[in-house]
Specification:
The chain has 93 residues and is mostly helical. The chain has one helix at 7-92. The radius of gyration is 39 Å and the shape is rod-shaped.
Length: 93
Amino acid sequence: MRESWTDARMDDFAAHVDQRFDAVDKQFDTVDKRFDAVDKRFTAVDRRFEGLERRMDEGFTRVDGRFDALQRTMMQIGGGVIVALIGLIATQL
């Protein structure tokens, strides 16, 4: 290793470093473009998931309504059976 650096060597070194950083900057520009393309694809995927979520919410709302109706029917039938049993017991006394 040399012990001293001349101005010319320092200038060459600086130019070489600048060239290397320019190459790195170009590579990052390419990567940035690729990330932009990926972002666009994720935007499309987000829209699809939003549509799927909306359809699922609508389906769950319908199922919830059906369970509510089933519960109401079971309560009415159960209440009717209890009233009928009470009536039967009352007539047997």
